[in-house]
Specification:
With about 70 residues, the protein is mainly β. Helices cover about 0% and strands about 60% of the residues. It has one domain. It is built from no helices and five strands. The strands form two sheets. The protein has a three-stranded antiparallel beta sheet with strand order 3-4-5, with no helix packed on it. It has a two-stranded antiparallel sheet with strand order 1-2. InterPro entries: UCP037225 (IPR017143), zinc_ribbon_bacterial (IPR025990).
């Protein structure tokens, strides 16, 4: 992991709607991972659509654990 590949992103929990910050590693390109909400501890699917060569081309989608992403 390269430090320049870490991008902070402000998101909202799909369960409790609380805002929190995620630190995204885009060095591996697009990926699907899990993160617990920092407020309600619910499991959140995090889908990252990224181009390692263009950090500006980044889309982050959050979903509940029972949603298919």
């Amino acid at each position: 992991m390269h430090e320049e590949a870490l991008i902070p992103r402000r998101v909202r929990c799909p369960y409790c709607d609380a805002p929190f910050d995620l630190l995204l590693d885009v060095s591996q390109g697009s990926q699907l991972t899990w993160e617990d909400c920092h407020v309600c501890c619910a499991p959140i699917q995090v889908r990252i659509d990224a181009d390692p060569g263009d950090p500006e081309a980044l889309t982050v989608s959050l979903g509940r654990d029972d949603e298919v992403m």
